[in-house]
Amino acid sequence: MGDRRAGTPFHSQQATLADSFLADLDDLSDNEEEVVDEDNAEAGHMEEDIDGDLADIETLNYDDLDSVSKLQNSQRYSDIMQKVEEALLKGSDESDQGMVLEDDPEYQLIVDCNSLSVDIENEIVIIHNFIRDKYRLKFPELESLVHHPIDYARVVKKIGNEMDLTLVDLEGLLPSAIIMVVSVTASTTSGKPLPEEVLQKTIDACDRALALDSAKKKVLDFVESRMGYIAPNLSAIVGSAVAAKLMGTAGGLSSLAKMPSCNVQLLGAKKKNLAGFSTATSQFRIGYIEQTEIFQTTPPPLKMRASRLLASKATLAARVDSIRGDPSGNTGRVLREEIRKKIEKWQEPPPAKQPKPLPVPDSEPKKKRGGRRLRKMKERYAVTDMRKLANRMQFGIPEESSLGDGLGEGYGMLGQAGSGKLRVSIGQNKLAAKVAKKFKEKQYGSSGATSGLTSSLAFTPVQVSYFFLMHRLSCFMLLLV
């Protein structure tokens, strides 16, 4: 509006606005081209990442085992295992107990062993996938019956190409219930014997998985032997063997210290194959904690609570050990004693219910209103016999009412034949009689003078009723006239 007042033509304003809009659209188109180029570049990177992931996934299906499993051929694996074997032969060295934990070469070896144990776990999973892919043609149902990779590798190596599992002794490799299920399933399987070349690759993969498992046990044995120095407080609570397994699975003492207790409780937990049996007594959400002495000695109803308590105290002890707060392990022993006392407290029976004592009787009389005034009040408001009959109804007999047809105030059993009384008279109570007597004496009784209206005539009740009847009759005759 200000431009129009200044004399600027309206059409020129429209032209300038259109030009500015076109310029903005040109800028937007340029930006869109840049955004499209960036999107294309990001999409290219994503495609490269996806191709890389797919390439990693496709390595699991290679026929060559060396292209799948590369850990045992690495220099790092060989160096760490050589150092572990030398350390196990040499034993624990107590001369370096006073130095800083991070500077101790043995601690560095333990950290390397922890990371190597995690790599061994991943390598075993890869080899397990390789074995499953190969042996699926022979016994496809076996992978759903045996979940653990090492057990699966042992069973595959034991069975081989044998079709009749009654000739294969699986005792000691699997529980008896699982052996029975595997035997029954193998009798109805749709698999066929493997070619000799594929079978040989599968057996080699099983040997490699078992070798990795034995190497992992050796690493854990070394870490367990050094737990008294590396994690004395954690070892005091859960034991050196369980402490080594927890550290190995978590990836080191510092990683275990940073982990919440709910995750520490699940370290080492694996799915259990119950083969159709009840899951009521199975512990699914407990890992290495169930191997501790405290957990094993706890009654079954309290084991879940005990596992949570052990995981929380183990996390506290790991945090103390990670900063070398108590190298003597006294904190771990104190926490272990707290756990033991708490579990004993849980097992105590509830206190017996004490009998409630009676109140002490009062020797003084209770302050209740009584006496002549209370008796008078009760007498004044007492329910009379007439009111009792009026409040009572007889079954099957309609009651009379003041207005008739059930309207008005009902009379109940007053005047009915089944009431048991011929007539109910309203007797004057003692208080009313006494008041009436006092009123009469006050009005007429004290002076002996007689008024002029008094008469000496005395009438009997029969004479009074006769006079009253004659009066009524005379009134009736007058009405007729």
TrEMBL record:
Locations listed in the record: Nucleus
Annotated keywords: mRNA processing, mRNA splicing, Nucleus, Ribonucleoprotein, RNA-binding, Spliceosome
One Pfam family of this chain: Nop
SMART domains: NOSIC (SM00931)
Keyword Nucleus in record: yes
Biased composition (Pro residues): 348-362
Gene Ontology terms: cellular component: precatalytic spliceosome; U4 snRNP; U4/U6 x U5 tri-snRNP complex
Secretion signal span: none
Segments forming a coiled coil: none
Domain Nop: 230-348
UniProt region (Disordered), positions on chain: 343-374
Predominant location: nucleus
InterPro entries given in the database record: Nop_C, Nop_dom, Nop_dom_sf, NOSIC, Prp31, Prp31_C
Domain of life (superkingdom): Eukaryota
GO MF term (any one): RNA binding
GO BP term (any one): spliceosomal tri-snRNP complex assembly
Protein family (similarity comment): Belongs to the PRP31 family.
PANTHER family: PRE-MRNA SPLICING FACTOR PRP31 (PTHR13904), U4_U6 SMALL NUCLEAR RIBONUCLEOPROTEIN PRP31 (PTHR13904:SF0)
Listed name of the protein: Nop domain-containing protein
Gene that specifies this protein: LOC115705407
